[in-house]
Amino acid sequence: MKTYHWFSLLSVRQRIILLLTIIISLAIVVFGFLMHRPSQHIESISFTPDMSIRQIAPQLGVTGKSLARELNLSLDVSKNKPVAELNITDEELAHVVDHLLSHVDATAAYYVFFVLVLSGFVYLNLLGRPDASDIKRRKSWYPRFPYITTLIFSVLVAGFYFGKSPNPMESIVKVFKSMVGLYPDPTAKVIAFLFFIALAIIGNKLICGWACPFGSFQELIYSIPILRKIKRRKLPFALTNTIRATLFVLTLLFLFGFIGNRKGFVIYHYINPFNLFDGHFESISILITVIIALVGSFFVYRPFCQIVCPFGFVSWIFERFSITRVHVDMDKCTQCGACIKICPLDAAKGRVYGKKLPADCFSCARCLNVCPVDAVRYESIFKKRITKSDT
């Protein structure tokens, strides 16, 4: 009913924008599928222990160092010897090959990620608040249905249809793995990472809040209207961000061999929840991570995003450069606490009290229709600056 009321209040201009957004989004997705069909696993090629790393690696699209790392060998091991002479069994080789093939990128997925972010951007900036709708009708602004629909699409298509790759978390991990020689084309990995960062800057963490399939899965579970009293309790941002940053630094230290004296070890490989979308759980720790994150989402907002995700940490840093974001007009704000209460994190609190480094904001829109004095808006930073210079 609320969604219908919201739609009925949209102006002609907004309805045209909505229709154009749907048409453009469909066109982009269709174009992406036609131009870049999802990559298929290389099932026709048979790999045997009689083959060397140098023979196997190119066919899997990885470097010799990367294959050596996956086989639990030193990065400097001979790449010309048959892997059988390196004490690698047929079962071990088959397991590693299956794991590496699960990382094959589906290029069409990038078009889907863009469309998901585009949907969030248009909704938050142009459609969520009907034109000429006054503050008395604020409860009809930003209904949850468009957001929930986008999240479901993200989980089903960007997640289960395309599988674990690509995703925002993997994009940053692969950049650093490229630096130690685990990927043959570092430029491609950097471009993929910059693509996801650009989507985070266009709208404040829109890639995390609206498009990331595992983030969307957590959001959907958290949105189930149960355990509301428990959900009011928020994890301290200082604690969660410290854990997330520490894990990120430790990963780099292990990856570059400063700890363990062996390059190529990646902590995130053992706690990568995106494996859920391929059904590949190479280690029990991955399955445990998925279970804890999804069950924990009934009680805590996006636990994996808050505590673990390296892209979540880096995109939090890049929030300072977001072009559109939640803005609190301090000239209007009465500090009634309505937005702070509804925000699932301490993001609104940080903005109301002027903290330089507030908690992550996932652009979930919960705070955009609760302010009784219309002090909270989602808008461009340029619009905010113009407003200040004019007053």
In DSSP terms (H or I, runs of 4 or more residues), the helix count works out at 19
Tally the structural domains: 3
Helix-strand category: mainly alpha
The coarse silhouette is elongated
Strand order of the largest sheet: 1-2
| Main sheet: strands, sense, barrel | 2 strands, antiparallel
Q: What can be said about this structure in brief?
A:
The chain is mainly α. The chain is built from 19 helices and two strands.
Task: Describe the protein.
The protein is mostly helical and 391 residues long. The chain has three domains: 2-37 and 106-318, no CATH class; 53-101, no CATH class; 324-390, Alpha-Beta Plaits, CATH 3.30.70. It is built from 19 helices and two strands. It has a two-stranded antiparallel sheet. The model is unreliable at 385-391 (pLDDT under 50).
Blueprint (SSEs and pairs):
Blueprint: H1 2-9, H2 12-35, H3 53-60, H4 64-70, H5 90-101, H6 108-127, H7 144-161, H8 168-179, H9 186-202, H10 206-211, H11 213-223, H12 228-231, H13 237-255, H14 284-296, H15 303-307, H16 310-318, E1 324-328, H17 338-342, H18 347-352, E2 376-380, H19 381-390
Antiparallel strand pairs: 1-2
Defining key terms:
391 residues, Alpha-Beta Plaits, two-stranded antiparallel sheet, 3% strand
